[in-house]
Write a structure and sequence with these properties.
The complex is a heterodimer of chains A (328) and B (430). Chain A starts with a helix and ends in a 14-residue tail after the last helix. The longest helix of chain A has 34 residues, at 3-36. By secondary structure, chain A is mainly alpha-helical. Chain A contains 13 helices and no strands. Chain A has helices at residues 3-36, 43-59, 65-72, 85-106, 116-138, 155-165, 173-195, 197-207, 209-214, 219-245, 255-265, 270-295, 300-314. Chain A has one domain (3-252). By secondary structure, chain B is α/β, with parallel strands linked by helices. Chain B folds into 2 domains: 5-137 and 280-380 and 409-421, Response regulator (Rossmann fold, 3-Layer(aba) Sandwich), CATH 3.40.50.2300; 144-278 and 384-402, Response regulator (Rossmann fold, 3-Layer(aba) Sandwich). In chain B, helix 2 (38-59) packs across helix 11, helix 2 (38-59) packs across helix 12 (309-332) and helix 12 (309-332) packs across helix 13. The longest helix of chain B is centred in the C-terminal third of the chain and has 24 residues, at 309-332. Chain B is globular, with a radius of gyration of 21 Å. Classes of the chains: A mainly alpha (328), B alpha/beta (430). The interface between A and B is large, with 56 and 49 residues.
Chain lengths: 328, 430
């Protein structure tokens, strides 16, 4: 096998795992859009906030310490203890549940029956509020996140590919773990939506709000539930991306990686988010491999959007999205 | 996002003593405490503010005139930086510190027109070294081209004076900032015989999978990084992931702070970066800062950034502003100087080893002189290396000289081209 082909295969394999990382972010968007028709602009910031909260709980950081110190002239930063990772994750999930309840209670309850663009604008406001709130609560400095997932080159992949091709592929262990976690997450979401009472209620609301309301399903409960699920997905995405490059405010920009994935996979399909992520991941890596050296590199950011645009021309609803037919 | 006692104290001073504003020296900061690049902007702004507070509290200001300090938030965004400039220019700022190459490029023609000095320490437009073209912009003590040349000179030293047949990758932030060293490294590659490969990373730089796969395939001897923000920490982690030898990975001074290496933990051990000044709290000036600023609760930030690389850089920038203001006061014989007088102070700034020691910062920065023709300073820098076990940067070289001849040649080419494009007649201002 030629070197070029081997390198291209390596790039494609890395594209698959990178695609899973993008899909993790896209999943949160899909969940909320499917259940409520809201395009949640704040999904990236939710991932950041969840990761900040996780690190804060893990390291025993005092919330709002900067504010407390500024007002009272104290020098408080840490409680002096740290929490085991699993306990900190559980604590973060509770925070995201509280966040979901607050979002429903103080924002969306007042916006029922409003135009989708109003709801979208509300999520933009929410994103900026949450970013500032996260800064105030946990500080803006870069934080290291260690949740016990190994990082670095996977020796197993390196050895196996070396034995097969005479060239060891590089794959990041963290991204392989992310793929596994994403698979478990998707399986969990599918089981939840297919086999539980709440999941069926969620699907009913997604299909037809009015009909769901008429059979006694509480829209408020469903919205709290779906924002909680999106919060948990945001936590997983924040954990993976935070472990990769530290927890810092640019983490919120990972949402930009999810948009082309959504255009490609469709806004209402969980499998679509996964497949869209994989196509974007592989596509951008292969494009960068073949075309990058010819056009100066740094193609990943714009190529994903270009690919999504091409898809939009031929399939506006995405690969797995529902085709909306409106009769005039 | 930070509400500090210092800000409150300054606000009270400003409102209660309105007439005193006329008798103050306005030294604002175009800071960024929010947004994706805040982790770099906050410590710099804290160091900048704390030094001015020290001068006010200990000395009663510069030459007896208190410093009036304020911040305008740019979020490292060029448009917001220009808005800040529009808001600040009417207040006669003595010097502006944009802390962004993109903002600097936008402000160069504006500051020329409005007669406001700008200090772009270790960033901005490199050819602003030519003071006869860029009368109002100063980039002492070192610039990007100096930095690139210093790294190459260090590598020459490491390789017994020859880089022939070596392959060097430049991993750069795909922006005006990141592209600055390319001409220098290209010229030097032609002269020294090394192969240069440039690889761009789109902002913010959280995803660098393709770039590091390419680096793994190319097997370079060295990787030089021109990054900022999350790009730095991601690159250090990716380098560790592909097992690139950390001691052969060297960043510019904007890729050499604590937040660039801490997220990677032990994996960052051995990573190197340029240093244009010392770091840490082992300097006598910190005793005064402790007594007059920290103990009084007047520090600008939370206190946990004190002594870090970027805090030290902010403090150094403030110190250079104060020294330039003192020089301007001496030249013009007045304490309440104007921006034009400040420009004269900057153009005649002399920093000696003795003066640095007097200021409580012995060996913190290189000695240098600024002139009307040369706004660039000495261009020297050191190499520092990260010790992940101790959690500290260690200086591993003395000051290294850049290739001044080549850099001045390039500065003249670029600045004269700018002068021709903009109908500027190169000359010193009287």
């Amino acid at each position: 096998m030629s070197d070029t082909l081997l390198f291209a295969l390596e790039a494609a394999a890395n594209g698959l795992t990178a695609g899973v990382m993008y899909a993790l972010v896209a999943l949160g968007f899909v969940l909320i859009f499917k259940a409520s028709g809201i395009f949640n602009f704040s999904q990236g910031v939710m991932a950041l906030f969840a990761a900040l909260t996780l690190v804060g709980l893990q390291s025993g950081q005092i919330p709002f310490s900067h504010l407390i110190n500024a007002i009272f002239g104290t020098r408080l930063h840490y409680f002096g203890w740290s929490l085991p990772t699993l306990v900190a994750i559980a604590g973060t999930v509770l925070v995201m549940v509280a966040f979901a309840w607050l979002v429903e209670r103080y924002i969306f309850r007042h916006l029922v029956n409003q135009e989708p663009i109003i709801l979208f604008m509300a999520t933009i406001g929410l994103a900026y509020f949450l970013e500032g709130f996260g800064d105030l609560m946990w500080g803006a400095e870069v934080k290291r996140l260690d949740v016990g997932i190994p990082q670095g080159m996977s020796l197993a992949v390196d050895e196996a590919t070396f034995n097969w091709f005479g060239y060891g592929f590089y794959m990041d262990t963290l991204e392989l773990w992310a793929a596994l976690i994403a698979a478990i997450l998707v399986a969990g979401l599918v089981i939840f939506s297919q086999y539980t009472k709440q999941g069926r209620a969620l699907r009913a609301v997604a299909d037809d709000h009015q009909a769901a309301l008429s059979v006694g399903i509480s829209l408020r409960f469903i919205w709290v539930m779906v924002w909680t699920l999106a919060g948990i997905v945001a936590l997983v995405a924040g954990m993976m991306w935070g472990a990769k490059s530290g927890v810092q405010f640019s983490l919120s920009l990972i949402a930009l990686k999810a948009l082309p994935v959504l255009i490609l996979g469709g806004f209402t399909s969980i499998p679509g988010a996964i497949v869209g992520g994989l196509i974007i991941g592989v596509g951008e890596k292969l494009f960068d491999f073949f075309m990058g050296p010819l056009i100066g590199g740094a193609t990943e950011n714009w190529f994903a959007y270009m690919l999504a645009l091409v898809f939009l021309l031929f399939r506006p609803q995405g690969l797995f999205g529902e085709k909306i037919i409106e009769r005039v | 996002m930070k509400m500090t006692r210092l800000t409150a104290a300054l606000a009270v001073t400003m409102t209660a003593a309105a007439p005193a504003i006329a008798e103050s020296l306005f030294l604002p900061n175009m800071s960024y405490r929010t947004g994706p690049f805040a982790p770099g902007g906050i410590p710099f702004a804290d160091g900048y503010a704390d030094y001015f507070t020290l001068i006010n509290e200990r000395d009663g200001g510069i030459g007896g005139v208190p410093i009036r300090y304020s911040e305008c938030e740019t979020a490292y965004n060029t448009e917001r930086g220009v808005e800040c400039y529009q808001a600040l220019r009417g207040e006669n700022p003595l010097v502006l510190q944009p802390l962004s190459t993109g903002i600097t490029y936008q402000l160069i023609p504006r500051t020329m027109q409005d007669g406001i000095p700008m200090h772009t320490m270790g960033y901005g437009r490199t050819s602003a070294v030519n003071g006869e073209v860029f009368n109002w912009t100063f980039n002492y003590p070192a610039n990007y081209w100096d930095g690139a040349s210093v790294i190459i000179n260090y590598l020459l030293e490491e390789n017994d004076g020859s880089l022939d047949d070596k392959k060097i990758v430049l991993l750069y932030h795909n922006s005006a900032y990141g592209r600055e060293p390319i001409p220098t490294l290209t010229r030097l590659s032609e002269r020294l015989g090394y192969e240069l490969l440039t690889i761009g990373v789109d902002s913010p730089g959280q995803e660098q999978g393709s770039q590091w796969l390419q680096i793994r395939r190319e097997r370079p001897d060295y990787v030089i990084m021109w990054g900022w923000g999350v790009m730095n920490s991601t690159a250090v982690q990716e380098a560790a992931n592909i097992r690139f030898p950390m001691e052969n990975f060297i960043g510019v001074w904007w890729s050499g702070s604590q937040q660039d290496v801490l997220p990677a933990g032990e994996a960052a051990h051995g990573y190197k970066a340029l240093a244009m000044h010392g770091t840490g709290t082992d300097y006598p000036v910190y005793e005064d800062l402790q007594q007059y600023v920290y103990d009084r609760g007047l520090e600008a930030g939370t206190g946990d950034e004190i002594g870090t690389v970027l805090y030290s850089r902010g403090m150094y920038a403030a110190m250079l502003a104060v020294e330039a203001a003192r020089t301007a006061q001496e030249i013009h014989g007045v304490a309440n100087i104007t921006p034009a007088m400040m420009r004269d102070g900057m153009a005649n700034l002399v920093i000696t080893e003795e003066r640095m020691a007097e200021l409580g910062l012995p060996d913190f920065g290189p000695p240098f002189e600024v002139s009307c023709q040369n706004h660039g300073g000495s261009g020297q820098a050191m190499i520092q290396q990260w010790d992940a076990h101790a959690g500290e940067w260690n200086l591993i070289t003395d000051w290294i000289e850049p290739d001044r001849e080549l850099i001045m040649e390039m500065v003249m080419e670029d600045s004269l081209a700018y002068a021709a494009e903009n109908d500027i007649e190169p000359a010193c201002l009287n």
